[in-house]
Write a structure and sequence with these properties.
Helix 2 packs across helix 3 (24-36). It is built from 4 helices and no strands. The termini are far apart. The protein has one domain. The chain has helices at residues 8-13, 15-22, 24-36, 42-46. It is globular, with a radius of gyration of 12 Å. The chain is mainly alpha-helical and 55 residues long.
């Protein structure tokens, strides 16, 4: 059964695959999300875009 949940264990265990397929920046974003304990999905972490609002 596929649950669709990616855990901290998955990110750490498959670090080489994440870096190879998505880049080091994406992996570091995932690590930051883990440290901050933010509730985000893997796709949100990988395909993150930062939008800066004008001041």
């Amino acid at each position: 059964m596929i649950s669709g949940v990616i855990t901290t264990r998955h990110v750490i265990r498959h670090a080489a695959t994440i870096v190879r397929e998505f880049g080091a920046a994406a992996y570091l974003r995932c690590c930051l999300v883990i440290l901050r304990r933010q509730p985000v999905t893997f796709l949100e972490c990988i395909f993150y875009k930062e939008f800066r609002l004008p001041h």
